[in-house]
User: Which sequence fits this backbone?
């Protein structure tokens, strides 16, 4: 269910040229902010929560997820070169699973690792905050990758819809309507972080069992439906 | 100028044509005429490009599918204004729930999405399909192309951000909140959206012009607009609540386009500051805010001009 050649091509599409630049800049911004904040106010748990939860997990992780998730398949569908891949004797679910693995790997490397470093910079992992947010970033990157990979196969405007979900639903509506937070990858990931570091002031609106079930469900359903969608893909011309 | 019909090579009376080739191999005059109508020139081409780009920013003149997103976003943008007007009229409040200058800043995610969706549409497709050289085969210069695209994006963005203000203003007048007061605030709001539009159109177009792939352009524009904004807001909150440093809050605001407009509207246009702790930039800071904004706009223009020096060739 994993094809090394497809994986290699996807890595090259994701990390080639300018796309890699933005993927490197985002974690660099996070670490620069952490250093600045540490110099400004010193080690503080509440500040670490604010930077890691309010900025990194809320905006950086979804954005990297959108770039890696849709970037793993979107451009190929966009320029039509996906037909050469589909014409090879590979099962469609294999293609999707391989691309999903790559997208998850890239999102994790560019979000969870900087998250851990930023956590250590901010307060030296006191009360396990750095580890907790890194765990949350890992969980979120799996779910985001599956979700945005699915979007990439469904729509040509995948990036826009992915951003609508990440910015409008999770950030804007989530902050106004409490109910919207139940259906938010960010809150599910926060539930994991809450469990990893109890008493560190990390709060989620979703219970851990519900969050774990929903994370798994979104990932599996997203990957399965993307595989199905790839079997019946129609290539449309440029609008 | 018409071609002389009696003088084409095949039947030229004075030509010493060898007799055996003369009859079969004549080139016929098919009546080609030069264009001798009016030439509309550079300003007309520039104006056409502007109008076409502005219509394109709302999907007009394009497929039905590409009209969906801009108009949905426009509806999302105007709906809260309508709701505020309804609340004000029904409850008989003596002022609107939100100041005109604040509206743009609160709705930034929606506006960001609009720029991210439409700026690549405006410039990336031309680059990707290598149609830019075709534009320059018309009598327009590089400055005309960049200027038309910039002006069209600014106008589209200004329409997008000022329509809800018009709704709020109409509601404010209907609720009899005081004509002079409302008008002043409305004009200040329009000033703030104008600054916002010029600045954000420049940044959006520049980022989009650097990335010919549309999907990636969308992500890049949104990253450049939102990541600095959230980063600055986070650090500002830390500076306010942990370090209690009002100066740090106001100077940090220079580091992202969103907070830059926030500082400008609170310093020059009578708005309330949206910074943590509601600090407004002081006189020196305000001057720097204005300078940085102007420098950013000029920088975007210069970078766009440089980008199109060799575009598509």
Assistant:
């Amino acid at each position: 269910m994993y094809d090394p050649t497809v994986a290699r091509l996807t890595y090259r599409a994701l990390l080639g040229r300018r796309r890699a630049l933005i993927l490197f800049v985002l974690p660099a911004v996070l670490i620069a902010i952490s250093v600045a904040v540490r110099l400004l106010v010193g080690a503080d748990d509440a500040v670490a929560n604010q930077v890691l939860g309010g900025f990194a997990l809320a905006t950086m992780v979804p954005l990297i997820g959108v770039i890696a998730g849709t970037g793993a398949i979107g451009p190929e569908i966009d320029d039509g070169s996906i037909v050469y891949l589909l014409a090879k004797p590979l099962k469609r679910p294999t293609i999707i699973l391989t691309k999903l693995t790559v997208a998850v790997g890239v999102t994790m490397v560019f979000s969870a690792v900087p998250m851990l470093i930023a956590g250590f910079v901010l307060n030296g992992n006191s009360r396990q905050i750095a580890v907790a947010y890194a765990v949350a970033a890992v969980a979120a990157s799996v779910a985001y990758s599956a979700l945005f990979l699915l979007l990439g196969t469904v729509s040509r405007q995948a990036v826009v819809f992915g951003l609508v979900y990440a910015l409008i639903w999770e950030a804007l509506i989530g902050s106004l309507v409490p109910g919207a937070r139940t259906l938010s990858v960010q809150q599910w990931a926060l539930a994991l972080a809450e469990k990893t570091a109890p008493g560190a002031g990390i709060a989620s609106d979703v219970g851990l069992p519900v969050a774990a079930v929903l994370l798994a469900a979104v990932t599996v359903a997203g990957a399965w439906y993307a595989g199905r969608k790839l079997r019946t893909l129609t290539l449309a011309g440029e609008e | 100028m018409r071609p002389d019909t009696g003088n084409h090579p095949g039947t030229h009376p004075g030509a010493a044509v060898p007799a055996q080739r003369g009859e079969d191999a004549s080139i016929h005059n098919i009546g080609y005429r030069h264009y001798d109508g009016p030439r509309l020139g550079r300003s007309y081409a520039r104006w056409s490009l502007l109008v076409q780009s502005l219509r394109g920013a709302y999907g007009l003149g394009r497929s039905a599918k590409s009209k969906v997103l801009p108009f949905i976003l426009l509806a999302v943008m105007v709906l809260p204004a309508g709701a505020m007007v309804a609340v004000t009229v029904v409850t008989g409040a003596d002022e609107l729930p939100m100041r005109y200058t604040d509206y743009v800043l609160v709705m930034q995610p929606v506006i960001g999405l609009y720029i991210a969706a439409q700026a690549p549409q405006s410039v990336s497709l031309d680059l990707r399909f290598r149609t830019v050289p075709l534009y320059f085969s018309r009598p327009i210069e590089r400055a005309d192309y960049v200027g038309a695209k910039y002006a069209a994006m600014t106008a589209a963005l200004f329409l997008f951000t000022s329509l809800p203000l018009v709704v709020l203003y109409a509601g404010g007048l209907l609720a009899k909140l005081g004509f002079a007061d409302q008008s002043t605030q409305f004009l200040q709001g329009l000033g703030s959206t104008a600054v916002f539009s010029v600045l954000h159109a420049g940044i959006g177009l520049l980022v989009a012009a650097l990335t010919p792939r549309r999907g990636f352009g969308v992500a890049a524009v949104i990253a450049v607009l939102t990541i600095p904004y959230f980063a600055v807001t986070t650090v500002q909150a830390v500076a306010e609540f942990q370090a209690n440093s009002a100066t740090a809050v106001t100077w940090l605001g220079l580091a992202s386009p969103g907070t830059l407009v926030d500082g400008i509207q609170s310093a020059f246009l009578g708005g309330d500051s949206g910074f943590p702790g509601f600090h407004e930039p002081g006189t020196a800071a305000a001057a720097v805010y204005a300078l940085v904004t102007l420098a950013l706009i000029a920088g975007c223009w210069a970078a766009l001009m440089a980008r199109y020096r060799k575009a598509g060739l």
